[in-house]
Write a structure and sequence with these properties.
40% of the residues lie in helices and 0% in strands. The protein is an all-alpha fold. The protein has a domain of 25 residues. One of its GO terms (cellular component) is plasma membrane.
Length: 52
């Protein structure tokens, strides 16, 4: 029977949690901005599709 090594969770299967890192160089976008841009892009595609 194999030994467990290092006390790691076997069920994690090598997955890494990246949300704990506080990188100040990263680009931070407010979720509201993403939603608004998605709606605007969708509306623009709808209008362009109707015109052409």
């Amino acid at each position: 029977m194999a030994k467990k090594s290092g006390g790691r969770l076997v069920s994690s299967a090598g997955l890494v949690n990246y949300y704990d890192s506080d990188d100040h160089r990263a680009i931070h976008i407010d979720p509201k901005v993403v939603i608004v841009l998605t709606i605007v892009t969708g509306a623009a595609i709808f209008v362009l599709n109707a015109l052409f």
